[in-house]
Amino acid sequence: MILILDFGSQYTQLIARKIRELNVYCEIYPFYHIPKHIAHIRGLILSGSPFSVNDHNAPKPDLSAFLGKIPVLGICYGAQLLTHMHGGKVGASGLREYGRAKLHVLQPNNPLLNKIPEKSQVWMSHGDTIDELPEGFECIASTEDIRNAAFEIPVLKAWGIQFHPEVYHSEYGKELLKNFVVNICGCDQSWTPESFIQSSIESLRRKIGVEKVVLGLSGGVDSTVTAVLLSEAIGDQLHCIFVNNGLLRKNEFQNVLHQYRDMGLNVKGVDASERFLEALRGVTDPEQKRKIIGRLFIEVFDEEAHKIEDVSFLAQGTIYPDVIESASVAGPSSTIKSHHNVGGLPDVMKLKVVEPLRMLFKDEVRRVGAALGIPDELLGRHPFPGPGLAIRILGEVTPEKVALVQEADYIFINGLKEERLYDHVWQAGAILLDSRSVGVMGDERTYEYVVALRAVHSTDGMTADWVHLPYEFLARISNQIINRVPGVNRVVYDISSKPPATIEWE
Ligand code: XMP
């Protein structure tokens, strides 16, 4: 395995994903939590950081367990740290160097630069630069502006690079990372969806034995892949619960329940729609809606789980980005999450937890799902928020409004699928505004609801751009919604990006 020490760079997760794409397993740890068991670690990567090594509070962990013992690659801050630790000079470069640069290879035979052409494009993003290398360091590549763009410390089997190989704009970045993890560290490229499935099934069987596991299915990719993987491992010892909170898309509950059963999952569908809608009556505050829905879901799930005798484990579809404790500029304390009051937790939350996907990135979850034979239709679904349509109905949620937004959403999403636009959009849906506007239908004045359509491109939901859907398509969907959804006389398209807007309206 490759260990990546995170110093708070925005690109750390990208390094991990690029290495995983090489079918080499790696894990990210914050610089202040260096793992204790390191015998299986074949190489170490030090990430970039918003810090300067010259800052009085710059992170400088003790790397003596690794340096000289296994190969080390410092990227940006990591390279500056290696330089600084050994007495070299790192200084502010005057202006921030950001963007594309041409890398000139000085040592074509260096193992880190194997198969990298003499000149290629790399991506820079740094405020400091390495002015002087310590004795024993060898400069192996430069750019027009930076002499020490890459170096080797031969006695330590360590390298440093000032650019970011993990970023798309570094042309030969993947080759460089491959040179490090495969050729230098000697990792074999055997981390594949199939090998993950096989080893997970074995370890799940060992961990669970003959005991029973309960899992809440949401229709989303993560819980579905978790269920199918567990079902492969322990069959009907897995009991799935799929709750209809009355806030799902049109026909979603029945359709997805059928799909789950067709996949051979042992799943119970629980229709708690009325309970949720009743609890939401009169509530207009978005956060309040979220709290009510979250609490009620746990209540319903807890009641259902109690009906299964002797259940010992709670399975969850947690994935790696939820688990990674990112090193933040504000320091370790700001990332530590507060704990719930254990005494007050419902019984299901006291069960032993099993999270088979906790080390996977989202794209890896999809690949594992495909290798498990889960239909593309389920794996390619857009993300959908836990509180469902409740946060797409501005203001009070009523059964009538749910039906209305379900209809509008159905027309929009079906239209995207028919036009083969669905897979090019990261997330889409219809929002029902809480104000009405004047319109005219025939000779009659109308005073009805407004529906907003939202479609965004994103990679992780943290930032998003609105999608430039074709005007003809928007015109057709607008017509269909106004003609077919009674109570709506106006459709608008949301052209805001995140930030400063958010994807959901509430
Ligand atoms: P925002 O609106 O914050 O959404 O830009 C980013 C992503 O998160 C989803 N989202 C939620 N998911 N519970 C969820 O499970 C929530 O309360 C929630 N709020 C937003 C949203 O759909 C988008 O994918």
TrEMBL record:
ATP binds at residues 218-224. PROSITE patterns: GATASE_TYPE_1, GMPS_ATP_PPASE. The keyword Nucleotide-binding applies. One of its GO terms (cellular component) is cytosol. Residues 191-381 form the GMPS ATP-PPase domain. Gene3D superfamilies: 3.30.300.10, 3.40.50.880, HUPs. GO terms for molecular function: ATP binding; GMP synthase activity. Catalyzes the synthesis of GMP from XMP. This is GMP synthase [glutamine-hydrolyzing]. The gene is guaA.
